[in-house]
Amino acid sequence: MDQPLIQFENVHKSYGENHVLRGVDLSIYKGEITTIIGKSGEGKSVLLKHIIGLVKPDSGNILFDGKTLFSRKKNERELLRNRFSYMFQDSALFDSMTVYDNIALPLREGTRMKPAEIGECVAKRLEQLDISGIDAKYPGQLSGGMKKRVALARALVTDPEIVLFDEPTTGLDPIRKQAVHTMISDYQKRFGFTGVMVSHEIPDVFSISQRVAMLNEGKIVFQGTAEELMASDDPVVKGFITPQGMDLKDF
Amino acid sequence: MLSLIEKPIRTTGQNTLAFVSILGKAGVFFARSVFFVFYLPFQWRRILEQVYFIGAKSVTVIVLTGGFTGMVLGLQGYYTLSKFGSEGLLGSAVALTLIKELGPVLTAIMVIARAGSAMSAEIGIMRISEQIDALKTMNINPIRFLVSPRLLAGVLSFPLLTALFDTVGILGGYLTGSKLLGINSGIYFFRVEASVLMSDVREGFIKSVIFALVVITVSCFHGYYTHLRKEGFGAKGVSLSTTTAVVQACVIVLIVDYVITSILL
User: Fold this and answer.
1) Hey, is the C-beta of A97 within 8 angstroms of any chain B C-beta?
2) Which of A15, A83, B25, B100 is the most exposed place for a label (fewest CB within 10 A)?
């Protein structure tokens, strides 16, 4: 098997008394979508924030292309971050900016594109996500589902190499949910980005994930394909997916 | 018995360490904010937006407070000076008090109330709703993006607002002193012109620039570190940050005013 693009080695993270990550070992491979599942409050978002450097581990290593992330020089880390994009769980849209400015901001600040080119890129993403015509609105004027799609448009507008999705479809209706999954999958196939997704959409999300990892009590208790997950005899894994009423035959 | 002695010593030590730590953090925050002002490319659009917000939108409140401060000075000054038969010196008294002292200080306090509190709340909300983290994920330095334009805009706006405050205040003094109480208007303005030196105006402007640095840094600092507050999280944290920013900025402005005055006198 290839060398993982991102690798967690015995990563620990605590917030005061709360020991969130208790020795996470996880491998994320290039060009694949890896979905992290697990109960709410297990630290999946914290794990995702470690990848982009928003949170530093208390101990353990995070390797990117085989090299420790936090031992790199600051400018090297910044260059690396340019290859990432992050979609936040609560969208984290800039509420004093219009939808257009929210999506255009990474292009204005991170590229030398002309305003007209930026306008084209933004319009294209808005159209792809079926939210054309809302570019002059402010996030506070949008529904939860629309905010999610604007956040997704912002995450994908720079054509990043690695995209981190924190519950990208929570709060969407089934049709929009399917549309977002399809779009992520299509984009991944077209541009070949590496995706890491935190999701509760079981089993829908399995159809677009090449790999699934399960976080339980601060540790990765399973990583493999969706089929391997379904066939797993691990009582923790079974206990988590059984309430969904799932069977391998249904998948 | 030991704990009775130990506890206050420990508390004092902890508070001192916390104070030094915050002071250090604020120092680094200020240094980074200043550094990013000169970091290319200049953020013209954001700087102009902030000049409009801090400067242009404060004009009404500055005109009102400046006018009434000058009018009160005119009234009080007249009755005090008339006891010594020196009403003619009213122009000097009003102008020097405003230009050297009240202009910069009251302008700073008005801007703290109007713009400083808003800055602290806005940045605080951005922090708790992960908007600052979102900037980081886009490789946009939050201090450069949020604080530096405000700092430069403050440095540009404060002296102009102070000048406006002084001018309207002197006119306010003229209204009460001359129009209401009957001092000759020629004498009033002659005294203003004769007594105010360029060094007095310079002192006022030096104060206003330093106050701008203090007000913007304190307001933005408390908003930026809202998430580290131990007393409250979320909306409560933002409200506490805003209150602390306003109170601290006002107190620091008055302390710095005393220090600068004692140096420049």
Assistant:
1) no
2) A15
Give the 3-state secondary structure of residue A219.
Answer: strand
From B133's Cα to the closest Cα of chain A, the distance in A is: 7
* Three-state DSSP state, B183: coil
| Predicted complex ipTM | 0.84
pTM above 0.90, yes or no: no
B48 to each of B53, B55, B134, B239, how far by Cα in Å?
Answer: 9, 10, 24, 27
B131/A54 touch (CB, cutoff 8 Å), yes or no: no
Nearest-by-Cβ selection for B130 from A82, A92, A106 = A92
- Please answer whether residues A180 and A16 qualify as being in contact, where contact means their C-beta atoms are separated by less than 8 angstroms: no
Q: Best mutation site among A105, A108, A138, A147 for testing chain B: the one with the most B CBs within 10 Å?
A: A105
pLDDT tens track, chain B, 265 positions? 667 888 889 989 998 998 899 899 999 999 999 999 998 888 899 999 999 999 999 999 999 999 999 999 999 999 999 888 888 889 999 999 999 999 999 999 999 999 999 999 999 999 999 999 999 999 899 999 999 999 999 999 999 999 999 999 999 999 999 889 888 889 999 999 999 999 999 999 999 999 999 999 999 999 999 988 777 778 888 999 999 999 999 999 999 999 999 998 7
Range B1-34 burial, b when 16+ CB lie within 10 A, else e: eeeeeeeeeeeeeeeeeeeeeeeeebeebbeebb
CB-CB neighbors (< 8 A) of A105 in chain B: 138, 140
CA distance B130 to chain A (A): 5
B139 CB within 8 Å of a chain A CB: yes
